[in-house]
Amino acid sequence: MVERGDVAIVTLRSEKVPSLPKGLPTPAQPTDYAVLIARKQWQKVAQASANPADLLIVEGFPTLDPRFSGITVLATNTTTAACSRLSASASRRRRGERPRRGT
Fold this sequence. Notes:
Number of helices: 2
Largest sheet: 5 strands, mixed
Structural class: alpha+beta
Radius of gyration: 17 Å
Low-confidence stretches: none
Number of domains: 1
Shape: globular
Distance between the termini: 29 Å
Strand content: 35-45%
Helix content: 25-40%
Strand order of the largest sheet: 1-2-3-5-4
Order of helices and strands: EEEHEEH
């Protein structure tokens, strides 16, 4: 992760290919991503993302930017799996629902 001004840049490499529908080609090589995250969003997940057992979850707009190899993603929403579970658990408590196992 590199911070440049008001942006955190996270580089990722996708090497695992999910099972694809029959007829779609399998990617020939890994895909590199440069994920651009606004500093305000990054500060909310920076500590949690340091945990190697946690997953960074990014929603955003994919684009091609000549400054980066691969695909550039402009993040619109960023969280981690652990933060998402905590948020869902708190939401269920506010609604008066019983907690689910494992949360």
